[in-house]
Every structure is written in C-alpha cells, then in structure tokens.
Amino acid sequence: MTQHKTLNIQEISTEEHQRFLAEQPRASFLQNPYWPQTKPAWRSQSLGWLDNDRLVATSLVLYRPIPVPGLRGRSLAYMAEGPVFDPETIALDSLVNPLVPYMRSQGAFLIRMGLPFNLRRWEAETIRRTLSANEHDMIPDLHPAESNPTAWSLEDSLVRLGWKKPEMTEEFGPGQAQFQARIPLPELTAEQRADRESPEFIQAVDDVLARMDSTSRRQTRKSMRSDLQISVGDISDIDQWQTLYEETAERDDFTGRPQTYFESMFNALNASDIAQCKVLFAHYEDQLLASAIYVQQQDTGWYVYGASTRAESKRYAPRALQLEQVKLSLEAGARWYDLGGVSPTLKKEHELAGLTRFKTTMGADVIETMGEWDYPINKVLSQAFNRYLARRG
Fold this sequence. Notes:
Blueprint: E1 8-11, H1 14-22, E2 43-51, E3 54-65, E4 75-79, H2 92-105, E5 108-113, E6 118-122, H3 124-133, E7 146-147, H4 149-160, E8 179-184, H5 190-193, H6 199-211, H7 214-224, E9 228-233, H8 238-252, H9 259-270, E10 275-284, E11 287-297, E12 300-308, H10 317-331, E13 336-342, H11 353-361, E14 365-369, E15 373-376, H12 379-392
Parallel strand pairs: 4-5, 12-13
Antiparallel strand pairs: 1-2, 2-3, 3-4, 5-15, 6-7, 6-14, 8-13, 8-14, 9-10, 10-11, 11-12
C-alpha cells in the first residue's frame, strides 16, 4: 500500500546511502555517493527520506552555483536518476513535499529532478524498420512494446505538484537524454555467470548477437576471429585511453574531457562497494585499436565512453569491446546493457538519426524515461539560468 504521509528528510552518510542502494534492484551510478568525486565544481549531499527511523528513499544531490555575480550561495539542485524509491509503497507527494523547503534552505533557486522510471519501450527491430521506411517523425508516434502505468501516474503527480515537464526535443540538451538505448540481457544463475564457457553463458551471448541486425552480427563475429587481444587496464593505463580518446575527439570534432576526469571516475566508482569501472583495450599485436570506459552497478552495465583508431578497421576492434562489455554485464548479473542516449527523431535525414540506427542495429531497445523535471523555487533566477544554458548550448 502506498504511503501518503510526509516523510522526514535529512542528510545521510555515504555508508548509509550506499547500503540503501545495495538493496535496490536498480540504481544508476549517477546516484552513487562516490560519484561527486568526478564533479569538483559541484557541492554534493546524500539525502535520505525517513519513515520514523526507517530509510525509505535516497538521492544524491549536486549543487551548482549560478554563474551570475552578486548571487553567492544560490545554486541549481540537480538529482540525476533520483530519488531512488519504490513507487508501489512510497507516494511521490511524501518525497516532494519536504524536498522543496529543504532545497530552499540550501540556497537552491531551481530543482532539476530525473526520476529513475521508464514510461515506454520500443523494440530495436521496430525502430530499425521504421527508420528505414522514413514514414514517421518521432518515436512516440509508434505503438510501444511496453508501457508503464506507474510511471505515467508519477507524471500526473508531478504536474499536479507544480513541476514542469521536460519538452521533447530532437536535440540533446543539458543533463541526461530522455530516450535511452538499452539491450535486455538474459538472466543467468550465479553459477552460470561465473563460467564463460558454460553452455548457458554461451547461449546468453548468442541471444544478444541474435538481436543485432545482420551487418552488426557479422562484424562482431568477425572481430572474434581477428586475433585481437582484449585486456582490462588499471589506473596507470588511463593515459593510453586518453591518447586514443583525444585522437577520436579530433577526428570526430567533439570536445573531450581531460585525463583527470577519467582518473577521478575510475577511482571514485571502484572505491564503492556496489559499482565497478573498467578501462578496456583491444590490441592487434602491439597496436592499440580501440578502448572503452565501462561501468556496472546493480542491474545495469553501461558503455560510457569509447575511442578508436582508423587503423586495421576490418578487424572491428570497437565491436569486440562492445561484446566484451556485454559479457562483463552478464557476469555481473545485469539485466540491461546501456548504450546511452538517442534522439526521439525518426527523420532519416536528421544528424542524430545515425546514432539511433547504430545503437538499434546493436540490438538495443529504445526506452523513454520520465526525463528531467524542473521546480523553480525562484522563477526569475530559474528563467535567467535557463536562458544562460540556451545561450551556452
């Protein structure tokens, strides 16, 4: 039965936060209390909601000061993929009602919250076929394979409580993309997961390969026969990742992150009891062809960053690393392998349509999350901040 009473909200320790997340079936690494070590410009808090003395919900909150002179102490309060709670037993009102005054007391002028629940899911094959046909404009025009009434009810509650719904856009904005590409993974027992040579593990990998389109499947199988050496690095190897990543950024014309960010990410998540971060390499002989940053927590493995060279392209080293990350996710007992955000556009000519096509050819379904909702505590400052973001973008 859903609780409708107002809960007590307070700051909790890293240990309390981590213990709570360890008991949840799904919790993004963006909610891990060690994650703020990668965000030195942000102040962070672990918040807990208590029913008497029982912890029933948590959220990592990052506070970003507004970049306007004379407004010291005022900040954006950002909760990516949080709060984490069970919506079947805890009413959203009981979380939000104490949250707003608490954030006001912390100097927040705007709360941005991305509840970690999915609205709808479309199968990879459906998206691939529709993109090829070029007969629809947006993914929500299609009939979904699955819809979540609980998440829709949470949307209704947020509207009633005065929160602003995110606008659906074909472009990627700040924060987390509302539409995500995720490969569902077969469920294995602990014994089956522990042995990559077990018939069940091999079958699980084959099931993932079967989700791919014929080109991706052929290239992935070829990568398995391409004499590549797949290895897992440690913190001292991140300089090799960085060199290849910077080469990729220059070639593909995007602004990359500094090496210190990846070192912080590696150290932070591996310090946590519930997460792991790995830097993966694919070599041919002595030449590094591809690298990837992989994260796993609770029921999900994430392909977070990738880099590659154009050399020896017919060995399909990036495909080999994708398959390795699938195997790592299966070993960890994950139910999803997450390839990151996609645009909801189905327009063939749109610059982001190729990204959706690639991820769905890998077998990823498209998930519509609830997205990131805003609550303007100070409307004037919130409008100014959003104008600042729009100019910066």
